[in-house]
Amino acid sequence: MRKVVIAGVGMTPFGKFLSRNLKSLSEEAVSLTLIDAGVGPDAVDQIYFGNAAAGVVTGQEMIRAQSSLRNTGLAGKPMFNVENACASSSTALHLAWMAVASSACETALAVGAEKLSHEDKAVSFGAFARAVDLEEPLPEGYQAGTGSLFMDLYAAKAREWMRKTGCKVEDFARVVVKSRHAGSLNQLAQFRQPTSIEEVLGSRMVSDPLTLFMCSSIGDGAAAIFVCSEEYAARLDTPKVLIRASAVVSAKASGEREPVARVASRQAYEIAGIGPEDVHVVELHDASAPAELIHYENLGFCEPGGGAIELLRSGVTDIGGRLSVNPSGGLLSRGHPIGATGAAQIVELTQQLRGRAGARQRPAAKVALAENNGGQLAGDSAAAVVTILSV
């Protein structure tokens, strides 16, 4: 397996854009990425297109890549449609990485795009509700009633985690305050208004203990990554970021189980030859505020128990902290157009490693990790992808 380089990245603003479609979003992200890499469409050998919900929200099935990219100059090239819940575009990057690493091609483009906003919110919520095993009973502790299946599931996990760790609802609010501060510094973020603990706790209750500000929102957007071999990258006049590892894990339905994010991170650390102590900046899957704290444990940044709370309260995970977490604003503030989220994480981390993140920059960032998961199976995320980058 040869080394694979990220040579170009680009993304649209994230938000609710009722007037835009998948074509518009995809075209913008692809154009920005190719410009960033300093190449044209002819330089792309293969395309991996991540999308999760178009079939439900827009009705577009089967040829999402071909239809979304038909006007980008990429028509006629090999295109692979990738659907893996909220981990769709990180999975697309994994496949692009494998294609280049195995010498199947010199270059590849991973795209993540999602159009979630709809005039009827029930359509958008319905897309999320299909990311579970529809024949599986809902887990113990689940309480329905919000209209959002996943927020009810996240709330049940949050209540259990609070019971085990002694975490307070104010700590979840602190996650949001940190997230909104980061989002205020990110011109592409969906939510750019700073907030306070009191405002977070005072926002509408969605599913106890999750208030509105503790929940990621429906949104639209696209992001793309141009990857290539080291030899090809030497021809380009752009900063190079190395993909050190990528691991994809699916949930086990029975038997001895660990959280998929924990298994994927362990595999990625082993591939990269590093440990959690070597990571400087992280983008993780905070679909709800408690998830950030839970993933501090899953990714090995602290011991199980109260370690995650101490990390947060100490400022270690703030922008500029030793372990900067979600400097983009994460899903809570940058936004969560599900099929685009994984690619957006990689865009942010690439800019961090390039030293181009502006006011969000983690000083001297050399190693970065992205954790992206999706779906629900047997009480865990159905899939998780962990990617490690370095300069």
TrEMBL record:
Residues 4-231 form the Thiolase N-terminal domain. Its EC number is 2.3.1.176. It comes from the Bacteria. It is an enzyme of class 2 (transferase). It holds the Pfam family Thiolase_C_1. SUPFAM superfamilies: Thiolase-like. InterPro entries: Thiolase (IPR002155), Thiolase-like (IPR016039), Thiolase_C_2 (IPR055140), Thiolase_CS (IPR020613), Thiolase_N (IPR020616). Keywords: Lipid transport, Lipid-binding, Transferase, Transport. Residues 260-381 form the Thiolase C-terminal domain. This is propanoyl-CoA C-acyltransferase.
